[in-house]
Amino acid sequence: MRVLLLLAFCVVAALAQDSAPRLLSLPDPKLCAARPKQWNHGGHNYFFSWDQADIGLETVAGTGETKGKKVDWLEARNQCRSRCMDAVGMETEAENNMIFEFMKTHNITYIWTSGRLCDFKGCSERKDLQPVNVLGWFWSNTNTKMAPTNSTPPGWAAQPWSPAGHFGGPQPDNAEYDINQTSESCLGVLNNIYKDGIKWHDIACYHKKPFICEDNDLLLQYVQQTNPGLNL
Ligand SMILES: *[C@@H]1O[C@H](CO)[C@@H](O)[C@H](O)[C@H]1NC(C)=O
Ligand SMILES: *[C@@H]1O[C@H](CO)[C@@H](O)[C@H](O)[C@H]1NC(C)=O
């Protein structure tokens, strides 16, 4: 049985360290009803931000060309959450394979997921999350704990964390912290950037990337209950 963390709101406080507090977005019923349903897996809808003109693309000033918009980790979650979705969480190997395959066939260099390190207020008191780089990672979309990072997850055929990163060693390695004390607290999937195939990497949350959104059951239930007539 996976352990629920229920620490979603602490993430917000942790991200607010260097500027005004930034909050998780509330779902917008209209955006939820109109959310992109690009593909379906296990009863959830998904979309890739750069495949959605009104969400993931922007016009370059001057030239009029369009290019893919990149956002930081919290903004990726909020773009999804306003639509009753959240950044994708790969709780099962089948879902992870599906995301890796999508990135491979669409030649996508990198994405944000909802993966987050519990390294904010309240985390250090949790003995079950120590050592945090091994036991402290969770999917923030479902508040689901990840398997220990230092071995292949039980029942999975392969280790999704990369064997290679900035310093050449296995992920997560918190490499940017060693460079300038910026924690690599968010989980991105990188496509062969370190000649390592498609793999999970710990990355500082301010970096900007496109993202994949996944339906969020709690937000959908909440919006349905408060808007009984709405067709979600
Ligand atoms: C895949 O993406 C990379 C990086 O954006 C690009 O250099 C390469 O040409 C692309 N390959 C294909 C087959 O589109
Ligand atoms: C930390 O180092 C990275 C990688 O060199 C750089 O991109 C980032 O801007 C630096 N951050 C700070 C706060 O200096």
Automatic annotation (TrEMBL):
Residues 1-16 form the signal peptide. It comes from the Eukaryota. InterPro entries: C-type_lectin-like, C-type_lectin-like/link_sf, C-type_lectin_CS, CTDL_fold. Residues 73-214 form the C-type lectin domain. CDD domains: CLECT. Coiled coil: none annotated. Keywords: Disulfide bond, Signal. The keyword Phosphoprotein does not apply. This is C-type lectin domain-containing protein. It comes from Meganyctiphanes norvegica.
